[in-house]
Design brief:
Layout (H helix, E strand, L loop, with lengths): L8 E8 L3 H7 L9 E9 L3 E8 L7 H7 L4 E6 L2 E6 L6 E3 L10 H4 L6 E6 L4 E4 L8
Antiparallel strand pairs: 1-3, 1-4, 2-3, 4-5, 6-7, 7-8
The structure holds zinc ion (ZN).
Amino acid sequence: MNVDSIQNGIVIDHISAGNGMTLYDLLGLDQLDASIAIIKNVNSKKMGKKDIIKIDADIPVDLDLIGYVDPDATVNVIKNGTLVEKRKPELPEVLTDVIKCKNPRCITSVEQELKHVFRLTDKEKRIYRCIYCETKAN
Ligand code: ZN
């Protein structure tokens, strides 16, 4: 595909350099049957370097997940070759089944069917803690 001319799809822009692959993995984009381009270390006036992900498919993206990885990213929705919507993710208060608790003694390690839920406990420092055992997510 020509990465510059997405007709209908999603462009995740202003991703901090290095976060592109993390987002790609967490969003499960490897399982998608569409053309996807990750462009790394793009020069940006505002940010120095940034990553960009272009998805040539009109798929729903998880804004909470993007906000967790990179609250400064922007999500552009492209329809018929034009930008129709710019969405700004926010730091989500709660993350459900996005990250897993690493504490081996946590109840989520024992009860496999439990959801992994993390709550934002420090907005400034972007710290999330497991709601069951308080273990900090990294
Ligand atoms: Zn836990």
